[in-house]
Amino acid sequence: MDSLIAASARALAAGDALGALKRVALRDDPPALALRGIAMAQLGEHPRARELLRRAARGFGAHEEVARARCVVAEAEVALAVRDLGSSPRSLAAALATLEAHADHANALQARLIAARRLLLLGRLDEAEAALARLDARGLPPSLAAVAELTAAELALRSLRIAPARAALARAHEAADRARVPALLAEVAEARAALDRPAARRLFAGGEQALRLDEVAALLASDALVVDACRRGLGAGAAWRPLARRPVLFALARALAEAWPGEVDREALIACAFRTHRPNESHRARLRVEIGRLRALVTELAQIEATTRGFVLKPLGERAVVVLAPPIDGDQASLAALLADGAAWSTSALALALGASQRTVQRALAELEAAGRVRSIGRARTQRWLSPPLAGFTTILLLPAALQME
């Protein structure tokens, strides 16, 4: 490795992308192309960065498989930054195997972190936790250690494990401080600030109360019967009944919980669950069927009793009933939460993360764009969607698979 390449690599490690470019901007040999690609990625020029990294990977010879693997890892990180989540993870897995076979532990860990962060974006928390459990961050550079701790903190936050999240963020701050990379310090500060912002609302008669993440975790761990509109389910303590795929049952449960300890008349339940204000006998019959299904689902947590006018929710024992609402209302709350990270998302990546069809996501984006809450850049396959960061509260509970409980 010549002196210019070494100096450029040191500048990149310190977060000085412009300093790195000054040393290799006019060179087209594979090592210089790779460093230029990484520098362009740090400057936000992601399409150009991917082009340079691919040229570098093609330029390395057959005996330079470690260098090619490093280019693949760098390109995978750029793909993560532009939210290209649809690409196959096989090339990254192959690069990881090559790096581990040649004892390049730092870049192998980088590859594992990219895979874990991709799983987090897709809401596959169990797989992300398993991937993080295989990491060995001992003896790594401070910048990589900070990224590893940030990833662990995000997983803990999305699983509502507040104490482990605080500990991981403290370690991330210490590592970022040692690395002296301003972007890392800012990312850690933003993650720590999320702990003190409102994450949900507790609804009650006549008003609402903003709750932080630690308060939400305490509420969910209590004995109260919680109807959770963030994750679309209800539970008490360790018991949890998911209703994300049963919207009618959840609408009925929320309406009954909001009226507790009072009753809800049948017409109001029909309007809430079936979106109609002109009920007929078929609606009333369907209401009886859906109430029966909800009653069977929550039999270990509460009873649903018929009254003269409608139905009333009666939790078992001395439990209170609490309605937990997201910090922002609307059917597109999860979509807005994904876009709130400030990154440019494609429609396909949003659909993949939400587990919805692209047509459904396109309709939701059109509604958000008409309301002025999102904007698009590019056209056709290059179209990306952006949203200004949502200041004042955190959207962690609205992200896909925010908390999985059985």
Task: Summarize the helices and strands and which ones pair or pack.
Elements: H1 3-13, H2 17-24, H3 30-42, H4 46-59, H5 65-81, H6 90-101, H7 105-121, H8 125-133, H9 142-158, H10 162-179, H11 182-194, E1 200-204, E2 207-211, H12 213-221, E3 225-228, E4 233-236, E5 239-242, H13 247-259, E6 263-265, H14 266-274, H15 281-297, E7 302-306, E8 310-315, E9 321-325, H16 333-339, H17 347-354, H18 358-370, E10 375-377, E11 384-386
Parallel strand pairs: 3-9
Antiparallel strand pairs: 1-2, 1-9, 3-4, 4-5, 6-8, 7-8, 10-11
Helix pairs in contact: 1-2, 1-3, 2-3, 3-4, 3-5, 4-5, 5-6, 5-7, 6-7, 7-8, 7-9, 8-9, 9-10, 9-11, 10-11, 13-14, 13-15, 17-18
Describe this structure in words.
- With 406 residues, the protein is of the alpha+beta class.
- 55% of the residues lie in helices and 12% in strands.
- It has 18 helices and eleven strands.
- The protein has helices at residues 3-13, 17-24, 30-42, 46-59, 65-81, 90-101, 105-121, 125-133, 142-158, 162-179, 182-194, 213-221, 247-259, 266-274, 281-297, 333-339, 347-354, 358-370, and strands spanning 200-204, 207-211, 225-228, 233-236, 239-242, 263-265, 302-306, 310-315, 321-325, 375-377, 384-386.
- A six-stranded mixed sheet has the order 2-1-9-3-4-5. The protein has a three-stranded antiparallel sheet with strand order 6-8-7. It has a two-stranded antiparallel sheet with strand order 10-11.
- A hairpin with a 2-residue loop joins strand 1 (200-204) and strand 2 (207-211).
- The longest helix is centred in the middle third of the chain and has 18 residues, at 162-179.
- It starts with a helix and ends in a 20-residue tail after the last strand.
- The model has no long low-confidence stretch (mean pLDDT 87).
